[in-house]
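Input record (one chain):
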Amino acid sequence: MGIPDGMLETLKKVSEVCTSHNLRYCLAGGLAVGVIAAPRATEDIDITLLMEISELPRLKKILSAAFDIVQFNEKRLEFADTSIQRVVIRGKGENIIILDILLPVHPIYRSAVENAIPITIDGIVIYVSRPEDLILMKSLSSRPQDIADIESIRRECTGLDEAYIKNNLPH
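The corresponding structure, as predicted from the sequence alone:
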């Protein structure tokens, strides 16, 4: 799968924490591309979380109980289609892991969580965005890496539901 050990351990723990607190989520971003298509370098863990901005203090408490939080940014990264809560976690061996939590401003993010597929890694169930939903999320951005990720998903994933993608593409 090609996920660095510290990042994989953190991802598994994030999944366990979300599950134990009934937080609906899915893996998104570069790690999701690596899991469903082709591995690629990434510097963070991106998850889409079905949570309202008003619930972020609760999320901070939950994560603080489970992780050594170095930083829980008080100011979110705001974009037209998403709001990102960045959390910096100290992992094993003093590794610093960036956890970007995408809050569903655009309906595509909500659908990604609702349609997520469970994948078991080392006995831990991790919900991962379906390839179609990952294409849709990445189509919201015009960053070169997102375009490359879409091409990788299209190349590596057979049987994509093209009608679903076409019907849900942002205008």
